[in-house]
Amino acid sequence: MIKQKCFVFGLAILLAISLFLMGCTTIPKSTQTTGIAEKGPVKLQLKPWVGEEQTSQMESESKVVMPTGWILKIKIKGEYTSICLGVDNAGVMKIITTTRFSDPEQTMENVPPDQAKFIEEAMKQSKGLYLTKTVSISRMRPDGTVLDNSFSRMLGAVTGTLLSTGQASDLFGFSNLQLSMFPDKPINVGESWTQQTGTNNNINTKSTLLGFDEIQGQKCAKIQIEMLIKIQYGDITSSSTSSLTEYFSTEDGLIVKSVGVNDTIPNQQEQGTTKNSFTTELVKRKKLTPDELKIIQAEADELDIAFGYLQKDNDSANKTLQKFADTHPQSRLKEGVEGIITYMDTMKNMRETTQKQIVESIPTITKVDPAMASASGGEWITITGKGFKDNPAPTVTIGGNPATGVKVLSETNIKAIVPAGIPGPADIVIQNAYAKVKSLPFKGFSYEEQEQKTKETQSK
Hints:
By secondary structure, the protein is α+β, with helices and mostly antiparallel strands. Helices cover 25% and strands 39% of the residues.
């Protein structure tokens, strides 16, 4: 269960961060709004902010509730800076974004003392899942559709590592997101537009123009976005609902306010639930000089090469990013590049650690005494081996039937009551409760007929 719980923590954290970063937009300091009447349809469209550096502060709070009642609370603060580097002939904007998070504040509640060590280790590992510093490049159409985003590719690369596959994984379906922010035609207040996108159409959204408000002297379209994301990993499924309210300046052609909430939907697979909320606030706007813009454009072209390796050859991506960091010591992007390198290395180390823990948690059976029991069941046997974990006790099956009265005497000895079975050989299998891994079948045990057992007992 170490792997599963770390996966649960990791899944919740990655999804929270990804939705948070996808929703990162600027917010003016004042959030007081007043309704503005609008007659007729309006065309919503982004306007390029080429050469302008926009820096915003942001906060995120997450709460993960496990089926056991354990509660993980996470608080993150940070800032991000976005620059539009240019626009191609098709009107597609190239945007570079650097993000800097503080160390996450994590607390746990309702954890029983005997599980504290395990949870502390899980929390320690989960801290490695945070992108404290990063840089990403995206290409976006005026309707807000992200055609390509290095962050989603990196997320796929590290998610595959986190899931211990070592291969790229599009767990969230972001590699084929193609999610537009605005409809392709003018829209009236009260109208909605829907989209189905993502890998296997696992992302469904409904957006509604609620009306118009004035914020900091600007007329803003108020847009409500509801999103449903379905995630599948092996036999584990998860669904997440998100609600995002955005205020779009019709004059400047940019989003000036964004507030979001994300909730996972509980299901039968004991993943727990997650609630995440986030806000952002504009703190600085700066026009770059032509020379500054030229330098960062050239550096972005170099990073495009490194990001192109993601999900294909992560080692080459890391080497190319490291070369950039070594050869650009004064770059404003260096900190974010080094953050990506550290993050991907952390994922690789976590995978190796998790694999080691899984191997170490596999129970092994070497001997069973007595090696034969009555087919009617009811007898005690002692199982000898290693890797037997208690609290809760493991499950023991004999011939596919569960044994009762299982008692872990030590990591090398278990006692159990034999269930009724069919005369003949019967495999014994032990499964530890937390790791959810089973021993190899032990084949040195068998059932015998009741009559034969009685005769043997009498002869003694």
